[in-house]
Design brief:
alpha/beta, 30% strand, disordered C terminus
Length: 246
C-alpha cells in the first residue's frame, strides 16, 4: 500500500490545533491530530447538500448563495453546477491555508471551482458575512467543522445555536434555504431549526457513491411569518426608540 505523504500544516485560526494535509497517490486527506476531517474519496454528501439546496433556488433572479466552509471544493463545485451564469457564490473559509490548498494541490479534485468568475472568497468566519445582512441570500450552506457537534473550534457552536440560526434565517430571503451538513444525526439541532420556524427536511445521504456510511444534511426553508405576526410588526402604536448597538 502506498504510504501517506505529509504535505503541509497550518494552525486552525482561534485554536491551538493544526490542520495537516496528506497525500497518498491521487488521494488527499485533511486531518487534525489523528482525526480525519475530510478525504477526497468521500464527497457524495457534500455534493448532495449543494445539489438539493441549489436546485430549489436556481430559478431565483440572480441568486446569491453563501457557502460556509470550502473543504476540498466539492460543495462549491456542485453548487456552481446547479446555478446559472447570473448567480453569485460567496465562499467563507476561516483558514487561509485551506484556500491556498484549493488553489494549489487540491485544485483539480473538484475542477478548480475557485477559478469560476461567479465565485467570491471571504477569508474569515462565515457569520461575519451574514451577521448584518437582511434577506440577502437565496441559500446559505453550512459545511463547517464536523456539523452541529463542533470538533475543531468551539466558537463554531454559535453557528448551530438558536442565536446563530436566527441570524442565518434573517439573512435568507423568504423561501430561501439553509442547508447544513453533519457527520452524524443531531436531534437537538433538528428541534432548534423547527423551533425558530424553519420548514425542515432531515436527510441521510451516502458519504460517497455506493458507500454504506452516511452523513446527515438538513434542508431548512425560511417561511413567511404568520399573518398575525406581520400585523403586530406593522402596528403603529407602541413605537420604540431604536436600540443603540454596543
Amino acid at each position: 500500500m502506498i504510504p501517506w505523504e505529509f504535505i503541509e500544516s497550518s494552525p486552525v485560526p482561534g485554536s491551538r490545533e493544526e490542520l495537516m494535509l496528506y497525500r497518498r497517490g491521487e488521494e488527499f486527506s485533511i486531518c487534525i491530530g489523528r482525526d480525519e476531517l475530510m478525504n477526497s474519496r468521500q464527497h457524495g454528501s457534500e455534493e448532495a447538500l449543494a445539489r438539493i439546496a441549489c436546485r430549489r433556488v436556481a430559478a431565483s433572479p440572480s441568486p446569491r448563495v453563501l457557502i460556509g466552509g470550502l473543504g476540498m471544493g466539492y460543495t462549491l463545485s456542485a453548487a456552481l453546477e446547479h446555478l446559472g451564469p447570473d448567480a453569485e457564490v460567496v465562499v467563507a473559509e476561516l483558514s487561509p491555508a485551506v484556500v491556498a490548498w484549493n488553489r494549489g494541490p487540491l485544485a483539480k479534485l473538484a475542477g478548480s471551482p475557485l477559478a469560476d468568475p461567479r465565485v467570491r472568497v471571504f477569508e474569515g468566519d462565515v457569520a461575519g458575512v451574514y451577521r448584518d445582512e437582511e434577506a440577502a441570500f437565496a441559500a446559505i450552506l453550512l459545511d463547517v467543522d464536523n456539523g452541529p457537534e463542533a470538533m475543531t473550534r468551539k466558537a463554531n457552536d454559535w453557528l448551530y445555536g438558536l442565536a446563530g440560526l436566527e441570524t442565518a434565517q434573517a439573512a435568507l430571503q423568504l423561501g430561501g434555504i439553509l442547508g447544513v451538513w453533519s457527520a452524524t444525526p443531531d436531534r437537538a439541532f433538528d428541534l432548534r431549526l423547527r423551533r425558530i420556524g424553519f420548514r425542515v427536511e432531515e436527510l441521510r445521504v451516502p458519504a460517497r457513491i455506493g458507500a454504506q456510511k452516511c452523513h446527515t444534511i438538513w434542508i431548512a426553508e425560511r417561511r413567511p411569518a404568520p399573518i398575525e405576526s406581520r400585523r403586530r410588526a406593522r402596528a403603529p402604536h407602541h413605537r420604540r426608540e431604536p436600540r443603540k448597538r454596543s
